[in-house]
Amino acid sequence: MKSERKNQFNLIDLGGDYSEILVSLRRVGLSDYESRAYIALVAQGHGTAEEVARIGGIPRTSSYKTLESLRSKGFVRMNESRPAVFYPVSPTELKKNITEAIGKAFDILENLQGVLSEKGTPQLVYMIMGRDKILAKIGEMLDGATTRFFLSTPSMAPIRTLHSQRFREAVNRGVEVIIVAEPFVKVPDCTRVHRRSDLIATDVISDGRTALIASPDYSICGYSDNPFLVGHLEVFMLSPLHEAHPPEVKP
Asked: Do the beta carbons of residue 211 and residue 224 sit within 8 Å?
């Protein structure tokens, strides 16, 4: 018992560093439990669900599900033993993957801006800062959708919590609502769901007229209502979807 308490204390005893790491991991789309579990694994090197629950301060009943979610997001690997043992993907590897993925998403917007400038078309991509403003913009795009609304995100909970009624109303008025979400994540009402475990940024397209790309923590996004930009992004997001990630069969 003393050893268990010592391990848990050492992790929390990181103090300000521990809090800062938690905040940073939430910004890349991890929940509080997922952040605690990953930190616990990095600190210990590996562990069972029970050990991670103890060290990370996570309820035992939630630990295994949390670790499975981290596994689907590419943050941990699992040894198929009994009990299962989880290993953290190295922070260096994750940093490289996340940086590249987010950079690629925003490079698309930057490159398209250049194309429009060469054609003498006004640059109609602008930045929105702040979680509340970005979530409100997503709600506005959903309310305005008349034919199709597309959402792909690694951070579904804030959108589902804030806009569940809007999704229900969109489906009821005949809008085709397509959602791409991570495995095991609860989604709002929609027409069809695709599951992917490699999501980094939040992508939203409404009626092929407006588009938004946001960071995982919804702190910053690029938004456009230019048909050329939006059409290009829509083709980029939807074309490979059915081939690589068939829709989930709804009961």
From this structure: yes
> Residue 117 corresponds to which tokens in the numbers above?
């400038």
**66-79: per-residue pLDDT in tens?**
998 898 888 999 98
d(CA 133, CA 139): 10
pTM over 0.85: no
Alpha helices in the chain (DSSP H): 2-12, 16-27, 32-44, 49-56, 60-72, 91-118, 131-144, 156-172, 227-238, 241-244
pLDDT in tens, 5-39: 444 445 555 556 777 888 788 877 788 899 999 99
Q: What is the pLDDT of residues 116-126, one digit of tens each?
A: 555 555 556 78
State the Cα–Cα distance between residues 39 and 160, nearest whole angstrom. Answer: 27
In Å, what is the CA distance from 196 to each residue of 70, 200, 244, 247? 13, 10, 9, 10
Q: Which domains does the chain have, with CATH numbers?
A: 2-89 (1.10.10.10), 95-244 (3.30.870.10)
Q: Omega of the bond prior to 83 within 30 degrees of 0, cis?
A: yes
Q: How many CB atoms are closer than 10 A to CB 63?
A: 24
In what order do the strands lie in the sheet containing 192-195?
Answer: 125-129, 220-224, 210-214, 202-206, 148-152, 176-181, 192-195
Instruction: Give the integer Cα–Cα distance in Å for 40 and 203.
Output: 31
Give 40-79 as a DSSP string: HHHHHS-EEHHHHHHHHT--HHHHHHHHHHHHHTTSEEEE
